[in-house]
Design brief:
This protein is an alpha+beta fold. Helices cover about 25% and strands about 30% of the residues.
Length: about 350
């Protein structure tokens, strides 16, 4: 599918902005029946410069910028983290950023369009996949090295913008129930690392939610709809450090640390701390699960939220490093949310 002409899209966008000036660009794209990448490329409400080079090349150079704000989101949760890009490893199809503040896992296979963007005086770097979906955004802040930012854009800025040609990304087809639930449970109980869970799902060709439903209440059990708010409130009250994972098909963004300021605004439940913001649309949460996985460091427990269609919205863990056991306060908190006893 080819993009509409810039002129026609700009005119339609300008009219929509005039009619509804508070709409964000993501929402304008939905209303106009195009992708966000197409709006950015056509300078609809923004000024954009295409960035030349591979995602890996661009990402590997981000460390020069100093403190910024990193944003990753899916349709139901937005994760914003302030910090610097350090310990960047981005030479292959999978990359990681392992800084103390910005912690990312990148899956570059579908990344395609990259821009430096200015919108209402706010500077950002924006990365889109081949379907035109925003994978990751980086915002300049008052603490950012402005000269380094300008030099970065000059270094990677392309003389011309490539045409945006939207390509569909095929969804993975997974069963809602495993063909052999006892074998899945046995495999689950033999896990040594939480990262092996995804490998297990692929081996049994089952969805995450299908695996949770089949595992047994000691390994995964549904909890009340307000479990996430109760968990965050208790974590804030006790200064219990947590990990918050928000992902889309191109990236996982992770916060590790305490949460303090919690606020509900309409359907959105928010964490509004100085260096970490989370915006969670609780109306999209169809089921919440407490999940337990064995590792070489002991049991690891998570709170996971899913949509009606079975998409993973967000995951929470207790703060921990490899080689360390789970925080006792975290496992006790999540057990308190459960009607049944978890595996021990």
């Amino acid at each position: 599918m080819t993009a509409p002409s810039d002129a026609s899209l700009q005119a339609r966008n300008a009219q929509l902005q005039q009619d509804e000036p508070k709409l964000r660009i993501r929402d304008r794209a939905l209303r106009l029946g195009v992708t966000e990448a197409e709006l950015v490329a056509a300078d609809c409400g923004v000024a954009s410069t295409a960035l030349a080079g591979s995602a890996q090349e661009i990402f590997s150079a981000l460390g020069v910028l100093g403190p910024v704000m990193a944003l990753s989101r899916n349709d139901w949760a937005v994760h914003e983290r302030h910090g610097s890009y350090v310990d960047i490893q981005a030479t292959g199809p999978v990359g990681i950023v392992l800084g103390p503040d910005i912690d990312l896992r990148m899956f570059f296979g579908s990344w395609k369009y990259f821009y430096a963007v200015v919108e209402n005086g706010r500077h950002s770097l924006q990365f889109f996949d081949k379907a035109g979906m925003a994978v990751h955004k980086i915002y300049r802040t008052e603490q950012t090295d402005a000269a380094a930012w300008d030099a970065f854009v000059a270094r990677f800025g392309a003389a011309q913008k490539p045409a945006v040609v939207i390509e569909a990304i095929a969804a993975t087809v997974e069963a809602d129930t495993p063909s052999d639930a006892p074998a899945l449970r046995a495999h689950w109980l033999a896990l040594k690392d939480t990262h092996d869970f995804f490998v297990m799902l692929r081996q049994f060709q089952v969805s995450r939610l299908g695996a949770l439903r089949a595992a047994g209440d000691d390994l995964a059990q549904p909890v009340e709809a307000d479990a996430v708010e109760r968990m965050l409130a208790q974590a804030a009250e006790t200064a219990l450090p947590i990990m918050c994972f928000v992902a889309n098909r191109g990236i996982v963004q992770i916060h590790t640390g305490p949460v303090r300021k919690l606020l509900r605004t309409g359907p959105w439940f928010n964490v509004l701390d100085e260096t970490f913001n989370l915006h969670l649309n609780t109306e999209a949460v169809a089921s919440s699960w407490v999940v337990r996985k064995p590792t070489t460091d002991g049991w690891v427990t998570s709170l996971e939220l899913y949509t009606e269609g079975g998409e993973l919205i967000v995951q929470f863990f207790g703060a921990r490093k490899p080689g360390q056991p789970e925080l006792a306060g975290w496992s006790e908190l999540l057990q308190s949310l459960c009607p049944q006893t978890l595996a021990a």
